[in-house]
Amino acid sequence: MQKALVWLRRDLRLYDNAALHYALKEAEQVWLTFIFDTDILKPLLKGELDTNGLKHDRRVDFIWQGLKQIDDELRKQGGGLIVRFGQPTQCIPEIAKELGVNTVFTNHDYEPSAIERDETVRVQLEKQGIGFETFKDQVIFEKKEILTNSNTVFSIFTPYKNNWLKTLQEKDLAAYECNPKPGQLAEIPKKLSAPFPSLESMGFCPTGIESYLPPGSEGGQSFLEDFLHRIDQYQVGRDFPAIKGVSYLSIHLRFGMLSIRGLVREAHRRMLAGSMGATIWLSELIWRDFYFMILSNHPRLAKGASFKPDYDNIAWESGATAKKLFAAWCEGKTGYPLVDAAMHQLNQSGYMHNRLRMVVASFLTKDLGIDWRWGEAYFAEHLNDFELSSNNGGWQWASSSGCDAQPYFRIFNPITQSEKFDPEGKFIKRYLPQLEKLSKKSIHAPWKAGHIELEAAGITMGKDYPLPVVDHDEARKKTLVRYSVVKKIA
Ligand SMILES: Cc1cc2nc3c(=O)[nH]c(=O)nc-3n(C[C@H](O)[C@H](O)[C@H](O)COP(=O)(O)OP(=O)(O)OC[C@H]3O[C@@H](n4cnc5c(N)ncnc54)[C@H](O)[C@@H]3O)c2cc1C
Questions:
Q1: Is 64 a catalytic residue?
Q2: DSSP 258
Q3: Does one domain contain both 132 and 155?
Q4: Together in a domain, 346 and 460
Q5: Count of domains for the chain
Q6: Mean pLDDT taken over the chain
Q7: What separation in Å is there between the alpha carbon of 251 and the centre of ligand 1?
Q8: CB of 284 closer than 6 A to ligand 1?
Q9: Structural domain span for residue 271
């Protein structure tokens, strides 16, 4: 009898899952497992802990809740999820051996450290005579599937997208059927039926994330349904953080609680029917594929390298002043309301609107002169949807060092960005209530408001709200000089 183990990682769903589909197709008995990877979680335990010595990390909580849903569903069908807290390189071969499976099935991961881990697991399993089969699942096209006419990897988005769309066929979007036969999802043997590890036993506390982000496929589906009512207006609302213009699906996508094929199917069908909103949204999903493709073909990016090597010659600010400015940015105390409100959104919820990610990243690198890697690391720690490929891509785009980045001399003005994308100051007021009484003219640059308005609004600059940490026009000039090293090389 063929037996299989499905190793879930960033594909936390029981429908349209390539690895699960092939396991169900090939084996009579199938088990599923998830390993809370100590190599990933231990570094997260550093830093501030609560009074019980536990770490507040919304992502670990979100994953945990998503897995609970999967376990409940599997139990209803006679199986259960085997969950461990340990090193996958040890746990997977152990569990596979204990179950006596012929093959372990899993889906591709494109991060260099994950590729290395998977290779170690493959070798371990091979020594035990167990197969290891892996599948494309989290993207539509991967690795070198989309190439230029001269068979090289794309580094510019638009031609990549055009080729991606040209290549796309119905089969690329077909859902993988995952309907187990009765009894096929096998009961967990007694030897392996350790209880589901609690968050606390792994060093983490509940975060309440479910109150605004419903976890699992069910949660993702409810967000998707809500968005599909709005998708046709996506191109109109997507740049305005005060309104509900985007999908907020990035975290469900990050952990594979929704299938990318399902999302692209929805967008593509509407695009063919003439929806501009769906066309632009599909383009965003293609950016996601693009950055996965870039990372898998340029693994050096995971080690901090600039995509354009010349940009590694830039001399960023350093020392105590840089540290102080960075702290002001992290804490949302730069004196630029849109930047500060955005950082509060991130710190309070783990989410930041895309327009604001661009604004704060530009501000950090081109107003404060701080290395994009500092910002990338801060986002990696705080974003619920942190994804190495898109995060690195976004930071390198903003700092101009990336593959298809904005030119180095394009420097966002944080005041005009604020006037354009939060004209009424509604988003700012949500996160900076102390600025509530400022007029829509002054809210973007409170230090420019007159004494009378500031007094009437109850604001003392420097006390109720910081004075700007830098002058944008001066910073802009400094940045052009800083980046001239790139110009000279070019
Ligand atoms: C500096 C910076 C850092 C970023 N870090 C991340 C990150 O760690 N993880 C992440 O998922 N996205 C990241 N992005 C991209 C983008 O900001 C988020 O995907 C988006 O804000 C998520 O919100 P949403 O799901 O409502 O997006 P929507 O606007 O509804 O877009 C739908 C989906 O398309 C994908 N997408 C949208 N924009 C991009 C983009 N520019 N690049 C790649 N994929 C995109 C995401 O999967 C997103 O969920 C970053 C962007 C910047 C500028």
A1: no
A2: S
A3: no
A4: yes
A5: 3
A6: 97
A7: 10
A8: yes
A9: 138-177+217-297
* Annotated catalytic residue within 133, 187, 316, 453: 316
Q: Is 31 a catalytic residue?
A: no
253 within 8 A of 285, measured Cβ to Cβ? no
- Asked whether residue 490 carries a pLDDT value surpassing 60, the answer given is no
Token pair of 47, please?
A: 């830093």
| Ligand 1 centroid distance, CA of 3 (Å) | 38
- The helix or strand, by DSSP H or E, that contains position 4, with its residue range, turns out to be strand 3-8
Question: How far apart are the CA of 250 and the centre of ligand 1, in A?
Answer: 6
The pLDDT tens digits of the residues spanning 318-335 come to 999 999 999 999 999 999
Residue 361 CB less than 6 A away from ligand 1 = yes
Q: Is residue 200 part of a domain?
A: no
Let me know whether 239 and 333 are in one domain.
no
Judge whether 164 counts as a catalytic residue: no
The answer to whether the CB of 246 falls within 8 A of the CB of 354 is yes
d(CA 379, CA 394): 11
**What single string gives the DSSP state of each residue in 121-152?**
HHHHHHHTT-EEEEE--SSSS-TTSSB-TTS-
285 found inside a domain: yes
The reply to whether 351 and 266 lie within a common domain is: no
Amino acid at residue number 387: E
pTM over 0.90: yes
Cβ 387 under 6 angstroms from ligand 1: yes
Other beta carbons within 10 angstroms of residue 6's beta carbon come to 28
pLDDT the model gives residue 194: 86
Instruction: Read off the CATH number of the domain in which 64 is found.
Output: 3.40.50.620
Tokens of 401: 């060092």
Catalytic entry in 31, 164, 281, 395? 395
